Amino acid sequence: MKIAVVTDSTAYLTKQQIAENNIHVIPIPVILDNQVYQEGIDIDSREFYQKLKNSSTFPSTSQPSIGELIDFYENLGNQGYEAVISIHLASTISGFVQTLETVAKEVKNTKVIPFDSQITVMLMGNMVIAATRMVKAGLNPDQIIDKLEDLRATTNEYFIVDDLQNLVRGGRLSNASAFIGSMLKIKPLLTFDRKSHKIVAFEKVRSMKKAIHRVEELFKIDQKEVDYPLRLIVIHANDEPAAEKWRDSLSKEYPQYQVDLSYFGPVIGTHLGEKALALAWMKDIDKLD
């Protein structure tokens, strides 16, 4: 059975990863100063944050049109793909997965199977890479979805943001009212809630240094409770030096784990703002059963 693996641009995969694994990527539109950009095509991360500094308005995000999506999947069907595993950013921060459920009913020449990663960024990217390996191993769509659900359950991530303005304006933060009004010099810690899968702010920490220390404490607690090898990812919003410093520190403290470096591109940066940092982890996809 010929199976395609699709994701969206918020997986933040490298061009090499996309090419080597035959991954099909749908760009998510970003709107800045009334101009629409296709993430990863018209605008990259560096350009986005530079434009953001000079922007007179808050950025926003959109979705490809249903017509464009139908054409995209029908084109895969025309290439002989009998099924498409389509892995996308959390349905709690975007309506994209719900849109794809509608699109799937309209595409007749291949079976489109939307999968809600319940997360985004490189955690989702690793799920996508794992899915391509499952395809190469000869697994069928049902088997792939089952294994992706197991892998999804191992993900965790904590964000440190400079302020909550973008998240609040975009409606992506479910408990914002508890944090607004006391943000001076405070670094809010955010995560995806394990039950609702919504982004929630759960602690306020004074200073970035203390926030990083607190996230490391939370990781220590989590890693002691798992019985599988982990892969860590330090993620930044246009602050690579800070991210590299954190990655190097973690690599020294946890030599048994792979610690990767990634970034928040335009779509996720729209909601988190510049200088956000995060530590994410999940089961190491290079050591799956």
From TrEMBL:
**Superkingdom in the source lineage:** Bacteria
In the UniProt record, does the keyword Transmembrane helix occur?
Answer: no
Q: Print the keywords alphabetically.
A: Lipid-binding
Q: Enumerate the InterPro entries for this protein.
A: DegV, DegV_C, DegV_domain_contain
Picking any one GO molecular function of the record gives:
lipid binding
Described purpose of this protein according to its UniProt entry: May bind long-chain fatty acids, such as palmitate, and may play a role in lipid transport or fatty acid metabolism.
* Name assigned to this protein: DegV family protein
The major lineage groups are: Bacteria, Bacillati, Bacillota, Bacilli, Lactobacillales
